[in-house]
């Protein structure tokens, strides 16, 4: 039986649409997190490069040293902010994943209900058919 052939069809279509929407949103969040991680990696590489450059130029003028320190401080701050962004995105991802699991459960519950309903309808049809056969058999027996 296809989705939509019974009284549960519309509900199943809605649940499927909600599930797909949650899946798409989860993928978007994961892609955003990957982008932010890439940015974090670039910032960290930049900081490491600046540190290596400062070590290489061990004899700097005071103004160059101050500039380098200010730049490293700013990079460290940006790295901290980037790490916070990633943590926030991770929280959103976890929430979306929970939502997806719940929507999936809900959809499967409706599918199970539909299956039970169809089984009940089939049993009732079989009972009616058996009663009809019994009535016909009694008529044939009485006529003989």
Give structural notes:
The protein has 144 residues and is mainly α. The chain has one domain. The protein contains two helices and no strands. The chain is rod-shaped and about 120 Å long. The two termini are 43 Å apart. The model has no long low-confidence stretch (mean pLDDT 90).
Summary keywords:
2 helices, rod-shaped, 0% strand, 144 residues, mainly alpha, single chain
Largest sheet: none
Morphology: rod-shaped
How many structural domains in the coordinates? 1
Give the distance, in angstroms, between the N- and C-terminal Cα atoms.
43 Å
Structural class: mainly alpha
Q: Number of helical segments?
A: 2
**What is the total tally of β strands?**
0
Helix content class: over 70%
Compute the average pLDDT. Answer: 90
CA radius of gyration is: 33 Å
Give the SSE string: HH
Strand content: under 5%
Low-confidence parts, pLDDT < 50 over ≥5 residues?
none
Summarize the helices and strands and which ones pair or pack.
Layout: H1 9-56, H2 62-143
Helix pairs in contact: 1-2
Summarize the structure.
The protein is mainly α and 144 residues long. The chain is built from two helices and no strands. The protein is 90% helix and 0% strand.
